[in-house]
């Protein structure tokens, strides 16, 4: 046992586990630890080199009997945990959609965790609920959403953890609304619709909600339509299902799909949904944030016809995980599906109906004070600050696209719409489609194994493509340029450096 | 515009939103802010005095166009947010079940938020997944759970946000298992069981899972049975339902109900469930943590017969919100109900089946790195530290019980089992049951309005009772004593101070 443990030991353990001065001392250490982490994170292998079981082999298999000193724990985090992380905060991280943390988003989470209030209803912490209603109206205005999604317009917003929960809750609202009309026993007749590019969250929500697997319609898209959902196909499929005696009730449209950032035509899809009185949810998990910039707002055109819309502020709005913003036009549909009224939560404010009780807008009862971090982000950066940050990501992605387009060994697979580029090595003469896919798979694996950048893949129209998504907050142009040079070097090695190419 | 804004303005905004030195500077300020908050929190009115709309009236109705300096935002938090909070961290907080934050739990959350990894599968951050499997095994051992709930025994644990999600996920696992046998179209025949004391999370989960409302069985309990679920009644009800052609599939038993900390007889209930091959989930949201102390472990006796068990480390295990620990005996039942396998997440490690992909153990895809905070709590305090903290809460509750029992105007309504006391003013001569309830309602409202303590209520066997739950981390004996004096003073005023009483 080291000197430190002897020092820290008895006196520390006799203190309250939330002793304010000990909290202060350790808190400062953790802030310095994280600041140093951000200073160094560019140098770490982006994707962890861990093998399955590595961490469990390094750590004891029982909790300690006696408490351990904080400094020893912090050292273990540096020695054992950090090497096992895939560094989403690295400037060289371009995989999936990056998680967009920032100082403001982080500090908001820190304050929420410090206050540690459980805002299930208004009374349990009025400011937590009211800040959430405020910040959801603020953001709706900043995105140019129609008044009907704001509290002042009869709608309203709520912070969920993730898009999965947002889609599930809206689907449940739509389900209950429909079953109230046709009878709850007809749940097996319900049908849901989305494109084959929709996020897996759509199918998972349908499964949880008890929709029969044969009643998930994932409608095919085409390269010619840039992988967007065809309103005509949706209309025809709905009609066919109705003729078969089924009950279409929910459509999920996407603005910015995960595979290729495809954008479904919201206006036309809403028209189809509204003809048949279906609930249409807009999943704008990634791309929704872009609408703080007027030049992207046209992708939401027609959204006034939708029933609900969600985006993840933790994806592209500088807010640390988790923070999914969901707006609905008719909150009563949500609360009719999700409200409970146990005796122990009864109170005058709730009964007055003058307040929002967010427990009835989500799956869980307990909820963290997520509004704080989104409020801090909006205030710290302001609308113009957010615009300039998002535009810088778009500009970096566009520059990457130009670099790819300038090397004739490569192709950009779909047009760049936001801050993500889908590219691949072109099919070379004599290579089959599967061989081309395999070559790209090896290129990506080599890149991720190098630890110098991290990207991910998709399969789009049968083609294996590499996705570079700019969005990690520390990323600068030089990191994007390095990532491209790395791609080229790996391509040189894969294809044979002697081949003369267009660079 | 103040000098500060001029200072902080341009230069700050030109920096990266995650500039490490700015992060460090602001991070230290927030730590000091929270340390000071804990120093002062005992002096704040525990339940906020806010009126509906107060906060929204104080704040602008649009996000700012330009960013604002951090110090101004922090001042607003002190001026506008703090007065609108109900202070769950106050030592005078005794309502619901307190949220049990601590320095270790807080710092774990801070580190997770700083790393900001999205651990949907093993590959996306191996250490996040492996630390979670480790810490769930550690805690299972500390609680004396059977080997069959550990990864080493073929089971395993996962960190969910809340009990609502844990009950929902286990119910979905049980639903899918049952429907695979009887056909998915028979969802309307499914029946679920719990006592009338079970948490509203049970009914909410059943509703989300598409169980027909007429098929929720909330079985009546009695005062004679201390409000615990009768195994005989359960057996008879299940038989009756089966005879009617329905399909019983899920039982939720509770260790430590919200109203009165009643404990269902786990062993006998598991026997009933196992006779009929039903899934039995043990909801030990509050009281489960007590099993780190051997003297409480007998309440889990027979748990080896259950299919799953959950407890909230954010309720009584020093871990900041949110942290619900769920163990299941058969993880494949969970993943069969909740897994998705989208192309963009495919990877070698997952295909090798050597790793856990927690996305398939929960509703959401994205997930925070919650294991960090639970690991920090277990290491910082060790098993003996946690035991002594929980025992101190129990001792304080027991002392409060004695104080109540020593004042003949009051009665303790049910025996104290953990760290919660249910009490009320006794029915006085000539008062109806409803008048007695009203008197207690006024007593509680007066207490909460005073701001000097915060408690909540339940209705138990028709009686309105006041609940004092010890568990807020800063609470010491003197705070419990003060709360009792406050109760007495309010009773004096309500009943007339002139009445000679037994004190």
Describe this structure in words.
Chain A has 503 residues and is an alpha/beta fold. The first copy, chain A, folds into three domains: 3-85, dopa decarboxylase, N-terminal domain (Up-down Bundle), CATH 1.20.1340.10; 118-369, Type I PLP-dependent aspartate aminotransferase-like (Major domain) (Aspartate Aminotransferase, domain 2, 3-Layer(aba) Sandwich), CATH 3.40.640.10; 379-495, Aspartate Aminotransferase, domain 1, CATH 3.90.1150. Helices cover 44% and strands 12% of the residues of chain A. The first copy, chain A, is built from 16 helices and eleven strands. In chain A, the strands form two sheets. Chain A has a seven-stranded mixed sheet with strand order 1-7-6-5-4-2-3, sandwiched between helices. The termini of chain A are far apart. The interface between A and B is large, with 152 and 152 residues.
């Amino acid at each position: 046992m080291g000197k430190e443990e002897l020092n820290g030991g008895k006196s520390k353990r006799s203190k309250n586990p939330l002793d304010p001065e000990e909290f202060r001392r350790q808190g400062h250490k953790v802030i310095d630890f994280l600041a140093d982490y951000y200073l160094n994170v560019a140098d770490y292998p982006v994707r962890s080199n861990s093998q399955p079981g590595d961490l469990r082999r390094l750590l004891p298999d029982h909790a300690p009997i006696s408490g351990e000193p904080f400094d020893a724990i912090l050292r273990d985090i540096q020695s054992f945990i950090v090497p096992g992380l895939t560094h989403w905060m690295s400037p060289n991280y371009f995989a999936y959609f990056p998680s967009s943390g920032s100082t403001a988003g982080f500090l908001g989470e820190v304050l929420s965790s410090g206050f540690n209030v459980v805002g299930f209803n208004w009374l349990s912490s009025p400011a937590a609920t009211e800040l959430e209603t405020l910040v959801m109206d603020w953001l709706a205005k900043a995105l140019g959403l129609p008044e009907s999604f704001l509290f002042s317009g009869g709608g309203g917003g709520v912070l969920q953890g993730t898009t999965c929960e947002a889609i599930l809750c809206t689907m449940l609202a739509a389900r209950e609304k429909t079953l109230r009309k046709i009878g709850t026993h007809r749940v097996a007749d319900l049908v849901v619709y989305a494109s084959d590019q929709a996020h897996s969250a759509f199918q998972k929500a349908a499964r949880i909600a008890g929709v029969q697997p044969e009643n998930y319609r994932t409608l095919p898209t085409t390269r010619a339509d840039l992988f967007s959902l065809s309103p005509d196909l949706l209309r025809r499929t709905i009609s066919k299902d109705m003729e078969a005696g089924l009950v279409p009730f929910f459509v999920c449209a996407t603005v910015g799909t995960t595979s290729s950032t495809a954008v479904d035509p919201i206006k036309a899809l809403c028209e189809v949904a509204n003809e048949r009185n279906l609930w249409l949810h807009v999943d704008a998990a990634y791309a929704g944030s872009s609408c703080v910039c007027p030049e992207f707002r046209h992708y939401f055109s027609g959204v006034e016809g939708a029933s609900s819309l969600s985006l993840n502020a933790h994806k592209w709005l500088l807010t640390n995980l988790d923070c999914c913003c969901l707006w609905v036009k008719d909150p009563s549909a949500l609360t009719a599906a999700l409200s409970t009224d146990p005796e122990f939560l009864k109170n005058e404010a709730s009964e007055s109906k003058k307040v929002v009780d967010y427990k009835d807008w989500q799956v869980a009862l307990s909820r963290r004070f997520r509004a704080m971090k989104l409020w801090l982000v909006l205030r710290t950066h302001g609308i113009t600050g957010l615009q300039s940050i998002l535009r810088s990501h778009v500009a970096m992605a566009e520059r990457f696209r130009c670099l790819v387009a300038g090397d004739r060994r490569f192709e950009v697979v779909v047009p760049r719409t936001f801050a993500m580029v889908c590219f691949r090595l072109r099919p070379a003469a004599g290579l089959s489609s599967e061989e081309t896919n395999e070559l790209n798979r090896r290129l990506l694996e080599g890149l991720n194994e190098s630890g110098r950048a991290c990207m991910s893949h998709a399969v789009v129209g049968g083609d294996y493509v590499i996705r570079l998504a700019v969005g990690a907050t520390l990323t600068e142009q030089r990191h994007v340029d390095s990532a491209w040079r790395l791609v080229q070097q790996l391509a040189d090695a894969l294809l044979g450096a002697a081949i003369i190419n267009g660079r």
